[in-house]
Write a structure and sequence with these properties.
Layout lengths: L4 E3 L10 E8 L5 E6 L4 E5 L5 E3 L9 E3 L8 E9 L2 E9 L6 E6 L5 E8 L4 E4 L4 E8 L5 E8 L8 E7 L2 E7 L2
Antiparallel strand pairs: 1-6, 2-3, 2-7, 3-4, 5-6, 7-8, 9-10, 10-13, 11-14, 12-13, 14-15
Amino acid sequence: VGDSSVLSCPNNSNIITMLSWKISPKVGGPCSLGYRADTNTTDRTNCSDSMNWKFRPDLSPDLEIQQVGLAQEGNYTCEVVTPDGNFHGTYHLTVLVPPRLSLYCDEHGNAVCEAAAGKPPAQLSWLLQSNSSLEEKSHDNGTVTVLSRLTACNTSVTDTTCTVFHPAGNWSESIAC
Protein backbone atom coordinates (compact mmCIF):
# COMPACT_ATOMS: atom_id res chain seq x y z
CA VAL A 1 0.00 0.00 0.00
CA GLY A 2 1.26 3.46 -0.90
CA ASP A 3 3.93 2.26 -3.34
CA SER A 4 3.78 2.35 -7.12
CA SER A 5 3.30 -0.88 -9.03
CA VAL A 6 4.08 -1.65 -12.67
CA LEU A 7 2.27 -4.45 -14.50
CA SER A 8 3.96 -5.67 -17.67
CA CYS A 9 1.97 -6.73 -20.68
CA PRO A 10 3.40 -9.57 -22.79
CA ASN A 11 4.70 -8.28 -26.08
CA ASN A 12 6.71 -10.40 -28.53
CA SER A 13 6.92 -7.72 -31.19
CA ASN A 14 8.31 -4.21 -31.57
CA ILE A 15 5.24 -3.22 -33.57
CA ILE A 16 2.02 -2.69 -31.61
CA THR A 17 -1.20 -2.32 -33.61
CA MET A 18 -3.55 -2.07 -30.66
CA LEU A 19 -3.23 -2.29 -26.89
CA SER A 20 -5.80 -2.40 -24.10
CA TRP A 21 -5.91 -2.78 -20.34
CA LYS A 22 -9.18 -3.91 -18.76
CA ILE A 23 -9.32 -3.40 -15.01
CA SER A 24 -11.91 -4.90 -12.65
CA PRO A 25 -11.18 -3.61 -9.14
CA LYS A 26 -12.85 -5.07 -6.04
CA VAL A 27 -14.15 -1.58 -5.21
CA GLY A 28 -15.84 0.61 -7.81
CA GLY A 29 -16.65 -0.08 -11.42
CA PRO A 30 -14.45 -1.42 -14.21
CA CYS A 31 -12.13 0.83 -16.18
CA SER A 32 -10.13 0.50 -19.38
CA LEU A 33 -7.18 2.07 -21.16
CA GLY A 34 -6.80 1.69 -24.91
CA TYR A 35 -4.31 2.61 -27.63
CA ARG A 36 -4.56 2.45 -31.44
CA ALA A 37 -1.35 2.81 -33.44
CA ASP A 38 -3.00 3.66 -36.78
CA THR A 39 -4.51 6.85 -35.31
CA ASN A 40 -1.93 7.26 -32.50
CA THR A 41 -4.78 7.79 -30.03
CA THR A 42 -5.38 6.71 -26.47
CA ASP A 43 -8.68 6.27 -24.71
CA ARG A 44 -9.51 5.88 -21.03
CA THR A 45 -12.86 4.97 -19.52
CA ASN A 46 -13.59 5.33 -15.79
CA CYS A 47 -9.92 5.00 -14.75
CA SER A 48 -8.55 7.13 -11.94
CA ASP A 49 -5.57 9.39 -12.59
CA SER A 50 -3.41 7.02 -10.53
CA MET A 51 -3.53 4.46 -13.39
CA ASN A 52 -1.69 5.21 -16.60
CA TRP A 53 0.81 3.95 -19.15
CA LYS A 54 4.29 3.52 -17.68
CA PHE A 55 5.73 5.48 -20.61
CA ARG A 56 3.93 6.09 -23.88
CA PRO A 57 1.77 3.17 -25.08
CA ASP A 58 3.60 3.10 -28.45
CA LEU A 59 6.86 2.52 -26.56
CA SER A 60 5.75 0.33 -23.66
CA PRO A 61 2.52 -1.57 -22.99
CA ASP A 62 3.16 -1.51 -19.22
CA LEU A 63 0.59 -0.12 -16.79
CA GLU A 64 1.69 1.94 -13.78
CA ILE A 65 -0.46 2.31 -10.68
CA GLN A 66 0.74 5.14 -8.47
CA GLN A 67 0.22 5.02 -4.70
CA VAL A 68 -1.52 1.67 -4.69
CA GLY A 69 -4.38 1.34 -2.21
CA LEU A 70 -6.88 -1.31 -1.24
CA ALA A 71 -9.32 0.11 -3.81
CA GLN A 72 -6.96 -0.99 -6.63
CA GLU A 73 -7.11 -4.68 -5.69
CA GLY A 74 -8.63 -6.78 -8.42
CA ASN A 75 -8.05 -8.24 -11.89
CA TYR A 76 -5.95 -6.54 -14.57
CA THR A 77 -5.99 -7.92 -18.13
CA CYS A 78 -4.01 -6.60 -21.05
CA GLU A 79 -4.24 -7.47 -24.72
CA VAL A 80 -1.63 -6.55 -27.31
CA VAL A 81 -2.39 -6.88 -31.02
CA THR A 82 0.70 -7.11 -33.23
CA PRO A 83 1.46 -8.38 -36.74
CA ASP A 84 2.75 -11.54 -35.01
CA GLY A 85 -0.58 -12.21 -33.24
CA ASN A 86 -2.54 -11.34 -30.14
CA PHE A 87 -0.99 -11.63 -26.68
CA HIS A 88 -2.84 -11.61 -23.36
CA GLY A 89 -1.69 -11.19 -19.79
CA THR A 90 -3.75 -11.30 -16.59
CA TYR A 91 -2.83 -10.23 -13.08
CA HIS A 92 -4.67 -10.46 -9.82
CA LEU A 93 -3.40 -7.53 -7.72
CA THR A 94 -3.37 -8.10 -3.96
CA VAL A 95 -2.33 -5.21 -1.75
CA LEU A 96 -0.26 -5.80 1.39
CA VAL A 97 -0.93 -3.42 4.28
CA PRO A 98 1.74 -3.42 7.00
CA PRO A 99 0.19 -3.39 10.47
CA ARG A 100 0.81 -0.63 13.02
CA LEU A 101 2.62 -2.15 15.98
CA SER A 102 1.98 -1.08 19.57
CA LEU A 103 3.18 -2.67 22.79
CA TYR A 104 1.85 -1.55 26.15
CA CYS A 105 0.99 -2.68 29.68
CA ASP A 106 -2.67 -3.15 30.64
CA GLU A 107 -4.23 -2.25 33.99
CA HIS A 108 -3.29 -5.70 35.40
CA GLY A 109 0.40 -5.37 34.51
CA ASN A 110 0.20 -7.71 31.52
CA ALA A 111 2.06 -6.96 28.31
CA VAL A 112 -0.24 -6.38 25.32
CA CYS A 113 1.06 -6.56 21.75
CA GLU A 114 -1.15 -5.22 18.98
CA ALA A 115 -0.65 -5.34 15.21
CA ALA A 116 -3.40 -3.03 13.96
CA ALA A 117 -5.04 -2.93 10.53
CA GLY A 118 -2.73 -5.28 8.60
CA LYS A 119 -3.52 -7.22 5.47
CA PRO A 120 -3.14 -10.17 5.63
CA PRO A 121 -3.38 -10.57 9.42
CA ALA A 122 -0.04 -10.46 11.22
CA GLN A 123 1.29 -13.30 13.33
CA LEU A 124 2.42 -12.41 16.86
CA SER A 125 4.94 -14.22 19.01
CA TRP A 126 6.41 -13.63 22.49
CA LEU A 127 10.12 -14.19 23.11
CA LEU A 128 9.46 -15.82 26.49
CA GLN A 129 6.45 -18.07 26.00
CA SER A 130 4.04 -17.96 28.86
CA ASN A 131 0.30 -17.69 29.09
CA SER A 132 -0.97 -15.63 26.17
CA SER A 133 -4.30 -15.03 24.49
CA LEU A 134 -4.95 -14.01 20.91
CA GLU A 135 -7.80 -11.90 19.51
CA GLU A 136 -8.54 -10.89 15.92
CA LYS A 137 -10.83 -8.11 14.77
CA SER A 138 -11.72 -7.80 11.06
CA HIS A 139 -12.34 -4.35 9.60
CA ASP A 140 -14.67 -3.35 6.74
CA ASN A 141 -11.73 -2.45 4.47
CA GLY A 142 -10.30 -5.99 4.57
CA THR A 143 -7.60 -5.32 7.17
CA VAL A 144 -7.33 -7.21 10.46
CA THR A 145 -6.13 -6.18 13.93
CA VAL A 146 -4.41 -8.91 15.93
CA LEU A 147 -3.96 -8.50 19.69
CA SER A 148 -2.03 -10.77 22.05
CA ARG A 149 -2.07 -10.38 25.83
CA LEU A 150 0.79 -12.01 27.76
CA THR A 151 0.03 -13.08 31.32
CA ALA A 152 3.41 -13.36 33.00
CA CYS A 153 3.58 -16.28 35.41
CA ASN A 154 7.06 -15.38 36.60
CA THR A 155 7.23 -11.96 38.28
CA SER A 156 11.05 -11.93 38.04
CA VAL A 157 10.76 -11.33 34.28
CA THR A 158 11.21 -7.59 33.84
CA ASP A 159 11.47 -7.33 30.07
CA THR A 160 9.40 -9.11 27.43
CA THR A 161 9.60 -8.96 23.64
CA CYS A 162 6.81 -9.23 21.09
CA THR A 163 7.66 -10.08 17.48
CA VAL A 164 5.30 -9.35 14.61
CA PHE A 165 5.60 -11.44 11.43
CA HIS A 166 4.01 -10.07 8.25
CA PRO A 167 4.73 -10.37 4.48
CA ALA A 168 5.42 -6.59 4.45
CA GLY A 169 8.11 -6.99 7.14
CA ASN A 170 8.91 -8.23 10.64
CA TRP A 171 9.22 -6.09 13.76
CA SER A 172 10.12 -6.60 17.43
CA GLU A 173 9.54 -4.43 20.49
CA SER A 174 10.29 -4.94 24.16
CA ILE A 175 8.55 -3.68 27.28
CA ALA A 176 8.76 -4.08 31.05
CA CYS A 177 5.42 -4.19 32.88
